[in-house]
Amino acid sequence: MPTPLLLVYRDTLELGPDVLTAVFGVYAAGLVPALFLAGPLSDRLGRRRVVLPLIVLSALTSLLLVAAASSLPLLFLGRFLQGAVSGGVFSVGSAWVAELSAAAGVGAAGRRAAVAMTAGFSLGPLVAGVLAQYARWPTTLPYLIHVSLVVAGLVAALRLPETVSLPVVRSGEGGGPLVLPEDRRTLVTVLAPMAVCVYAFPAVVISAVPLLVQTDAPPVLLTGVLAGLTLGAGALAAPLQRRLGRWTGVVGVSSGAIGYSLAAAGAGAGSPPLLLAAALLLGAGHGLTLSSGLALTARLARPARRGALSAVFLGCAYVGFAMPFVTAVTAEATSVGVPLTALSALTALLALRLVVATRRGQAA
Fold first, then answer.
1. How many CB atoms lie within 10 A of CB 136?
2. Dihedral pair phi/psi, residue 252, rounded to 5°
3. Of 167, 239, 285, 332, whose CB neighbour count within 10 A is largest?
4. Domains in the chain, start-ordered, CATH in brackets?
5. For 197-223, how does the pLDDT look when each residue is reduced to its tens digit (9 = 90+)?
6. Looking at residue 164, what is its pLDDT?
7. CA angle at residue 279 from 256 to 66, to 5 degrees?
8. For the chain, percent helix, then strand, then coil, each to nearest 5?
9. pTM of the full predicted structure?
10. Which of 309, 143, 82, 118 is nearest to 230 (CA)?
């Protein structure tokens, strides 16, 4: 929800693009350590004991962000805490969904987790963008809506059963490596780089591009629409993993490479239609790489280390949140088209690597 509000904070707090992208990226600074703490902790204590308190903290963090409208330090703190809470819920929640979906197969687990996450990511900025552009209290009302949704989510989560067999975990069977030795190369060369793409794709187009590109469209509304369209496309694309099967990752990464190219072209021309087309492709790439990565995570993980490996995957994914800052800094020294073109080329190389891995049966 805070993504389209960055432009409101830019005006009220008089912030530059580097500070705004840092505010956006500090979310990952809180999220990554939380991922690596919460995942293994839930393997030992159970999913419920970790997730439920974090859901409550999520609501409290939104209330803190209400107070951050006139304070840059509070804004940084709120975004950091938002990342920490989200990291814990995402990693443990993904493992929980996988275990609750065991009867439906590994692919179903990845699709369900991916659809849930991308749906929330798309609806949040879309609603916040519309409210910030046309309603009163732009830095208050979106967060209050989020608090009400968190309460509903907590009620739903309270009904879910625990899926971790605590006596087995506590007996010492929960240690050991994350994956089998023969799967380590797949973890490092396939799963980890594909994970970085998961949030690098949407983060650039919904954070850096609106701040760096001048168009005739209303800026706050355009940011909200870009964010909603990007992540909405991700939510719609994620279920395609059922049909694409082991080629899901290849299609997702290739879609991102083309999306970066269109974003570079749209940035140079100041063209909202090109930027919207780029948002669709980058969003689809986001959903497909997330779904493929979660499915591959579930396949590679040893049963007692599923929470820990989910944390590793999502930790690598949130490295992508640094891409808007890198893009903004590089664009300041050159032009916005340079980093976008470079990202397109690097992503295309990764797509070729995934083609090889898929043909060898190493990808999901």
1. 7
2. -65, -45
3. 285
4. 2-359 (1.20.1250.20)
5. 998 999 888 878 877 887 777 777 777
6. 83
7. 120
8. 85, 0, 15
9. 0.69
10. 118
